[in-house]
Design brief:
Number of strands: 9
Largest sheet: 4 strands, parallel
CATH superfamily of the domain at 13-174: Protein tyrosine phosphatase superfamily
CATH topology of the domain at 13-174: Protein-Tyrosine Phosphatase, Chain A
CATH class of the domain at 13-174: Alpha Beta
Low-confidence stretches: 179-254, 269-285, 292-302
Order of helices and strands: EHHEHEHEHHHEEEHHEEH
Strand order of the largest sheet: 1-4-2-3
Helix content: 25-40%
Mean pLDDT: 73
Length: about 300
């Protein structure tokens, strides 16, 4: 069997993308497929590992995005104590949300376990350019807060080949860049489903705004109504502001449940029935809501 079409036109691997653990490369080929290639064209799993070790780099995870298993056996990495993950990803079309979510889970889990070292994550599709570039850049944009064009530029430079597919580039560039959560402050009562339309308040003009809420963060495709124009300022809820600053592991449905629990607490406070707070209305999935938002309403009752 010959190598993939145009495979020899691409460099075997690039360099580490700055600010990440990613290194992209084309699909390595099993030894049987390398036999028909010249010595300088051969690129196998063992050759990849050797190249990285010679440059003082350690590979800890390989994510294979090819839509076939015919090029090599993943055990060639796992037997070297390198984690191997396969995500069947069709070429040409934009990778599905299911593919990206799986990619995100694998990468985020590895990064969490290897935050204190420089062990690399190797990503490849057939040529290590388009599907690889899309998923790596999207992760950089949505999880590492890179601007879209900055992520694309850094990937292209590190790989040594630019992302070629315009539909991939267009999709990446239309994704909104989001500020880190610590600078975003939103009152809890705005996190409910509610009426549409804008209104004026004593504190300033408010407007409807859709904020893209990310999985595992406050920002994950939920319609937040009447978000103030002055997002950087502390909004007012009655006589006391509520700032959401630590919601890293809370999803949009969780937020709505939290709001419901907050209403239960508020009702109990007004009626003098505060026992429900101790009973767990401020808890959800084992998470202390008041600890997450940095405010414990129970303290105001004393």
């Amino acid at each position: 069997m010959p190598p993939p079409d145009r495979w020899t036109d691409y460099r075997p691997l690039g360099s580490v993308i700055p600010g990440t653990k990613f290194i992209a490369f084309k699909v390595p080929l099993k030894e049987a497929l390398c036999r028909n290639l010249s010595a300088d064209e051969r690129f196998s799993p063992s050759r990849l590992i050797q190249i990285l070790k010679e440059s003082g780099q350690d590979l800890g995870l390989v994510v294979d995005l090819t839509f076939t298993s015919k090029y090599y056996n993943g055990k060639e990495f796992s037997k070297k104590s390198i984690d191997y993950e396969k995500i069947f990803t069709a070429g040409h079309e934009i990778p599905s949300e299911k593919v990206f979510q799986r990619f995100e889970e694998i990468v985020s889990d590895f990064c969490a376990k290897n935050a204190d070292n420089n062990i690399l994550i190797g990503i490849h599709c057939t040529h290590g350019v388009n599907r690889t570039g899309y998923l790596v850049c999207r992760y950089m944009i949505e999880k590492l807060n890179f601007q879209p064009d900055d992520a694309i530029s850094k990937f292209n430079e590190a790989r040594g080949h630019p992302i070629e597919r315009e539909n991939y580039l267009e999709d990446l560039r239309k994704r909104p860049f989001e500020r880190p959560l610590k600078s975003l402050k939103i009152p809890l009562h705005l996190l409910q489903r509610g009426k549409s339309g804008s209104q004026d308040t004593r504190k300033g003009k408010w407007r409807n705004q859709q904020i893209c809420l990310k999985k595992h963060s406050l920002l994950r495709a939920v319609n937040i109504l009447a978000v103030p124009r002055w997002l950087g300022q502390k909004p007012v809820l009655g006589s006391r502001g509520r700032s959401i600053t630590r919601m890293a592991m809370v999803t949009a449905p969780d937020i709505r449940v939290m709001y419901h629990h907050w209403k239960l607490w508020n009702h109990q406070k007004c009626s003098g029935e505060v026992a429900g707070v101790q009973a767990g209305y401020h808890k959800y999935k084992g998470i202390d809501i008041w600890d997450l938002i940095g405010y414990n309403p129970c303290s105001t009752l004393h």
